[in-house]
C-alpha cells in the first residue's frame, strides 16, 4: 500500500511473527502537526488510520486526513469521510440480493463488451446463510434435523444461486446453513483484531449487510451495518462515504449486582441512549467500569446499537479483548499482535475521564441496573421485571391510538384455566446472537432449567418453546456442562443454529390455539432473548412481545403468562404441591462460575471452526452448483429473477422537481423496516399471494417474503403490506391499504401505486419520527422505489434506512423542527409539489407546495436529507448501482 503520508508516519513494528511489519503511526501523525490525535475518540482513530493509509490525493485527500485528525467535538458536521474497510460480512437475507445485484452489474458490463471478471469483490467477503431456517419443529431430539431438511428444500433455488456465485466470484468464504448466525460467527471466529496485507498491519474494520453487524464493536473492531447496495460498493473497493460523526462518550462506573444479566444491562442502556438521542452518532464506552465487563457483555451492548439508534457502540481493545481472543481459540501470536499494535498506537485500554474529547458525556453506573424486560412493541420500552404485570394490564386498557390494545378489562389467566387469555405466552424462544453469544446467560438458562426440572416444573402446554443458538459452540459447552439435558426436558432442544424467532422465523403455533387467539381477539405474547419485538415481527397472531434474558425466557415458559409478578407469585408448584418461585431456581454466582469453568474452553472453538462447516449435511451437499461467469437466469423461476435496477428507467437523475404528486401513505412515528417490507408469511389473498397463485404456486409453497427477496415481483407487492401498518389516510384500519386519490377508492397500496403509475402520477410517503427504525433491510428502500415513490417526507429518519433510500434514488426529505403532517393538518387527499431540487446541495432547503381540495395552498419548508456530496452524486446517477456502473465502465447516467 502506498500513501502520500508514508514519509510522515509510516513506521515498523515487531508483532512477534519473526519479522517486522509496516504500520501507519497515529502518534507520529500528531507529532507532525496534523492534530491532537491522542484526544480523538478511539473509534475515530481507526477511521483516521484508514484515511491515512489510503491517502492518494484522489479518493482520500490530505485535507480530509487533517480535518479528521483535528476533529472538534461540537463542530457543525458538513464534511464527509471516505472510509475504506478491511473486509465485508454478508448475511443471506441481504447478501443473496447483493450477489444478485453484482451479477446484474456483470450482465451490464458484458453488454458493453467489457470483461465480466472486472465485477467481483476486491476485499475479503464472508457470507453466512443464517436467515433461511424456520422453527417449524421444536422440543424433540430430531427438531434440528427436520428443520434443516425443510430449510434446504424450501430454499434450493436460492442456494443453487449462492453455490454458482461461490465459483463465479473470487474472495468469498461461505458458511452454509447450520453454521450459526453471522454476528456470533464474526465475534467468535472471523474477527482478527488486526489485519495484514502486503506487509502492512492495520486495525480490523468492516461493514455488513445487517444492522447488527455493529456487535463486533464490543471486541474493539470498528464495523456497522449498511444496506446491501452500500455493501456492494464497499466490496468493489469503493470507499464508504459517511458524514463526520458526533461521538457520545459513556463513562462506565461500578459493576453489575449479583443476579443482574447483560440482557438487563443492554435494555437499560437502550432505553437511556434512546432518550439521549444518539441516532446516527458514534457511541463510545470508556471509564474504569469498562474493565468489569467481559467481551460477551460488551458485545451484547454493541449488538443493540441499532435499537438505541447509534451507528456503533464501541468498546476499547484491552486485557479483556486479549482474554476473549485466547478463550475463543485464536492463536497466541494473533493475540500478541493485537496487543502490540494497539499499544503502539496509544489506543490500548479504556480512557479515563478527561483523556478523550467527546461531543457529549453521560455516566452509566452499572450498579443502577435491575432485572428487566422490554416491550410490548419496541426494544427501548424497558420495564422492571417487578412492574411487568401492572404495565401489561395498563397497556391492555389503553386505546389503540395511544399505543395500547383497547381492551375494556383484562382477561386474567390466573385461577382455573377455562380459555385462552390476554397475556398468555405462546412463544418462548432462546434465540439471537444478542444473547446466545454470551456463555454467562446461556449457562444461567441451563442452570434454571436444571433446578426447575429437579423441582418437577414443566413449560405450560400452550407455549411453543425453542432454542436456536448463534453457533455450534453453544451446544459444545451446554453438552459438556450437562445442562442441555435439562433444557431438553423443558422443551428447549436445539431447533437450529440460525436467527430463528428473533428475525420472525418462529414457525407455526398450534392451529387450534391460533384460531382461539384470533377469534377471541386475545393479546397473546412472546418472550424471546432477541433484539427486536416490533409489531407482527415474531408471529402474526402474537400482539405483544417482550425481550428478556435467556433464564427469564425459561421462567416465562414455565409460568405461561406475563400476567404475573415473579417477585411475589410462584412460577408453578413442585411434585408435592409447594410453591416454586423464580428465586428458588435462579442460579448463584458460584454455580455460574463453576459452569463457566467448563464452558470457556478454546478447544471448543477450534474444533467447531477448524472442521467441516457443512457438518456432514447431505441435503446441502446435494444442492447442484451451476458453472460459468454469467448466471443463467431462468424465466420460469418464482424465486430468482434478474434485478431490474440497472434498467434505463432507473439510470437517470432524480434531482428534478416533483409536480402533482399524491401521497401513497401517511404514517406515524416509529415506522419500522418491518412495516415497510415485512419478512413473514405471504397471505394468499395479498397482491404477492395473487401473483404467486397466478404462476401456479400453491399457498403451502409460498414460503415467506424473506425467502423471496430475489424476486422483485413478489417483493414490490409486499411493500407496505405489514398487517399492523397503520395508514393514517384510512383511520382505524391496519394493513397494507390506502385511499387512492382523487377517487377515494380503498385498495391495497400496491394496486394504488400501479394505478398511479398508469396515470404517470409521482408519489410521496409522509411519516413521523424515527422513520425506518429496525433492520438494514434493502427491500424497504427497493420496494419504495419500485412502487414509484419519489420522496419520503418524515420528521426524522433512522440512519441505515435513510442511506438505503438514497442508494435507491428515493429522496429523503425532512420537516423542519417542530413541524409535522399533523401540524399542517395534512390528510393525504392533497396534491403536492416538491421544489428546489434542480441545483441540489447537501441538506438544501426545499419547499413542499400543498394544494388542498378546497382550493387553498400551503408552502412548507423541508430539508433535503442528502447529507454529503457523494449522496448528491448518487441521486444524480439514479442511485448507487447506476453510479457504480458509471464508475466502473464510464457509462454516464
Protein model, in words:
This protein has 893 residues and is α/β, with parallel strands linked by helices. It folds into five domains: 6-83, no CATH class; 85-241 and 614-640, Aconitase, domain 3, CATH 3.30.499; 245-315 and 350-370, Aconitase, Domain 2; 372-609, Aconitase, domain 3, CATH 3.30.499.10; 648-678 and 719-889, Aconitase, domain 4 (Alpha-Beta Barrel), CATH 3.20.19. 33% of the residues lie in helices and 17% in strands. The protein contains 33 helices and 32 strands. The strands form ten sheets. A seven-stranded mixed β-barrel has the order 24-27-28-29-32-31-30. Strands 6-5-4-9-10 form a five-stranded parallel sheet, with helices on both faces. Helix 17 crosses helix 19 and helix 17 (439-454) packs across helix 23. The chain is globular. Mean pLDDT is 94; it is low at 412-418.
Entry summary:
The protein is α/β, with parallel strands linked by helices. It folds into 5 domains: 6-83, no CATH class; 85-241 and 614-640, Aconitase, domain 3 (2-Layer Sandwich); 245-315 and 350-370, 3-Layer(aba) Sandwich (Aconitase, Domain 2), CATH 3.40.1060; 372-609, Aconitase, domain 3; 648-678 and 719-889, Aconitase, domain 4 (Alpha-Beta Barrel). The two termini are 32 Å apart.
Amino acid at each position: 500500500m502506498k500513501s502520500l503520508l508514508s514519509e510522515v508516519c509510516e513506521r515498523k513494528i515487531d508483532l512477534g511473527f519473526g519479522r517486522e511489519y509496516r504500520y501507519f503511526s497515529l502518534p507520529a501523525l500528531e507529532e507532525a502537526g496534523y492534530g491532537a490525535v491522542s484526544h480523538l475518540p478511539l473509534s475515530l482513530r481507526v477511521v483516521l488510520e484508514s484515511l491515512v493509509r489510503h491517502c492518494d490525493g484522489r479518493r482520500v485527500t490530505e485535507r480530509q486526513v487533517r480535518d479528521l485528525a483535528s476533529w472538534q467535538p461540537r463542530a457543525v458536521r458538513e464534511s464527509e469521510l471516505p472510509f475504506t474497510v478491511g473486509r465485508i460480512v454478508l448475511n443471506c437475507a441481504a447478501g443473496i440480493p447483493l450477489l444478485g445485484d453484482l451479477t446484474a452489474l456483470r450482465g451490464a458490463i458484458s453488454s458493453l463488451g467489457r470483461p465480466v471478471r472486472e465485477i467481483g469483490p476486491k476485499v475479503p467477503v464472508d457470507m453466512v446463510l443464517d436467515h433461511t431456517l424456520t422453527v417449524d419443529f421444536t422440543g424433540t431430539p430430531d427438531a434440528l434435523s427436520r428443520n434443516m431438511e425443510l430449510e434446504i428444500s424450501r430454499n434450493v433455488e436460492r442456494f443453487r444461486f449462492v453455490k454458482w456465485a461461490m465459483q463465479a466470484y473470487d474472495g468469498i468464504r461461505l458458511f452454509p446453513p447450520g453454521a450459526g448466525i453471522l454476528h456470533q460467527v464474526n465475534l467468535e471466529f472471523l474477527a482478527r483484531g488486526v489485519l495484514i496485507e502486503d506487509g502492512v498491519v492495520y486495525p480490523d474494520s468492516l461493514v455488513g449487510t445487517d444492522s447488527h453487524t455493529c456487535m463486533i464493536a464490543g471486541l474493539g473492531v470498528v464495523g456497522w451495518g449498511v444496506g446491501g447496495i452500500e455493501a456492494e460498493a464497499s466490496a468493489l473497493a469503493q470507499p464508504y462515504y459517511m458524514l463526520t460523526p458526533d461521538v457520545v462518550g459513556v463513562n462506565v462506573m461500578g459493576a453489575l449486582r449479583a443476579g443482574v444479566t447483560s440482557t438487563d444491562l443492554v435494555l437499560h442502556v437502550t432505553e437511556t441512549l434512546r432518550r439521549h438521542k444518539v441516532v446516527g452518532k458514534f457511541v463510545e464506552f470508556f471509564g474504569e467500569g469498562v474493565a468489569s465487563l467481559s467481551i460477551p457483555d460488551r458485545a451484547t451492548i454493541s449488538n443493540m446499537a441499532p435499537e438505541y439508534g447509534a451507528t456503533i457502540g464501541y468498546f476499547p481493545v484491552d486485557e479483556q479483548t486479549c482474554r476473549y481472543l485466547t478463550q475463543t481459540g485464536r492463536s497466541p501470536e494473533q493475540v500478541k499482535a493485537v496487543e502490540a499494535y494497539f499499544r503502539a498506537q496509544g489506543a490500548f485500554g479504556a480512557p479515563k475521564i478527561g483523556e478523550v474529547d467527546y461531543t457529549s458525556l453521560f455516566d452509566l453506573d452499572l450498579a443502577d441496573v435491575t432485572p428487566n424486560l422490554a416491550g410490548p412493541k419496541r426494544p427501548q420500552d424497558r420495564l422492571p421485571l417487578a412492574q411487568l404485570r401492572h404495565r401489561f394490564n395498563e397497556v391492555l386498557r389503553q386505546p389503540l391510538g395511544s399505543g395500547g390494545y383497547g381492551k375494556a378489562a383484562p382477561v386474567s389467566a390466573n385461577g382455573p384455566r377455562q380459555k385462552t387469555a390476554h397475556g398468555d405466552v405462546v412463544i418462548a424462544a432462546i434465540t439471537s446472537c444478542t444473547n446466545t453469544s454470551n456463555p454467562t446467560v446461556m449457562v444461567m438458562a441451563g442452570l434454571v432449567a436444571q433446578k426447575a426440572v429437579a423441582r418437577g416444573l414443566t413449560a405450560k402446554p400452550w407455549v411453543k418453546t425453542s432454542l436456536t443458538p448463534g453457533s455450534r459452540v453453544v451446544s459444545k459447552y451446554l453438552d459438556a456442562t450437562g445442562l442441555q439435558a435439562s433444557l431438553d426436558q423443558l422443551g428447549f432442544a436445539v431447533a437450529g443454529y440460525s436467527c430463528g424467532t428473533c428475525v420472525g422465523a418462529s414457525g407455526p403455533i398450534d392451529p387450534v390455539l391460533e384460531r382461539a387467539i384470533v377469534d377471541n381477539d386475545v393479546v397473546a405474547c412472546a418472550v424471546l432473548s432477541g433484539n427486536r419485538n416490533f409489531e407482527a415481527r415474531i408471529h402474526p397472531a402474537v400482539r405483544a412481545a417482550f425481550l428478556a434474558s435467556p433464564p427469564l425466557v425459561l421462567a416465562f415458559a414455565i409460568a405461561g403468562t406475563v400476567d404475573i409478578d415473579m417477585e411475589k407469585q410462584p412460577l408453578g408448584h413442585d411434585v408435592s404441591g409447594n410453591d416454586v418461585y423464580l428465586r428458588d431456581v435462579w442460579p448463584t454466582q458460584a454455580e455460574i462460575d463453576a459452569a463457566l469453568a467448563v464452558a470457556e474452553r478454546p478447544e471448543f472453538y477450534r474444533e467447531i471452526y477448524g472442521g467441516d462447516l457443512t457438518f456432514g449435511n447431505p441435503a446441502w451437499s446435494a444442492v447442484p452448483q451451476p458453472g460459468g461467469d454469467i448466471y443463467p437466469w431462468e424465466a420460469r423461476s418464482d424465486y430468482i429473477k434478474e434485478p431490474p435496477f440497472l434498467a434505463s428507467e432507473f439510470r437517470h437523475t432524480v434531482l428534478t422537481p416533483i409536480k402533482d404528486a399524491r401521497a401513497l401513505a401517511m404514517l406515524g412515528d416509529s415506522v419500522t423496516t418491518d412495516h415497510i417490507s415485512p419478512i413473514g408469511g405471504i397471505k394468499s389473498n395479498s397482491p404477492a399471494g395473487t401473483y404467486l397463485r397466478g404462476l401456479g404456486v400453491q399457498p403451502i409453497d409460498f414460503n415467506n417474503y424473506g425467502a423471496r427477496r430475489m424476486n422483485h415481483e413478489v417483493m414490490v407487492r409486499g411493500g407496505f403490506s405489514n398487517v399492523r401498518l397503520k395508514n393514517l389516510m384510512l383511520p382505524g384500519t391496519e394493513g397494507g391499504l390506502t385511499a387512492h386519490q382523487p377517487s377515494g377508492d380503498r385498495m391495497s397500496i400496491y394496486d394504488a401505486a400501479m394505478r398511479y403509475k398508469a396515470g404517470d402520477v409521482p408519489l410521496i410517503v409522509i411519516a413521523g419520527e424515527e422513520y425506518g427504525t429496525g433492520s438494514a433491510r434493502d427491500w424497504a428502500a427497493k420496494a419504495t422505489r419500485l412502487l414509484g415513490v419519489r420522496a419520503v417526507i418524515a420528521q426524522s429518519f433512522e440512519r441505515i434506512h435513510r442511506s438505503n433510500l438514497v442508494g435507491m434514488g428515493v429522496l429523503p426529505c425532512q420537516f423542519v423542527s417542530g413541524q409535522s403532517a399533523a401540524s399542517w393538518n395534512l390528510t393525504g387527499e392533497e396534491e403536492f409539489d416538491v421544489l428546489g431540487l434542480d441545483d441540489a446541495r447537501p441538506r438544501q432547503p426545499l419547499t413542499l407546495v400543498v394544494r388542498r381540495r378546497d382550493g387553498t395552498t400551503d408552502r412548507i419548508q423541508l430539508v433535503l436529507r442528502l447529507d454529503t456530496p457523494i449522496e448528491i452524486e448518487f441521486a444524480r446517477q439514479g442511485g448507487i448501482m447506476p453510479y457504480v456502473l458509471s464508475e466502473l465502465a464510464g457509462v454516464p447516467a
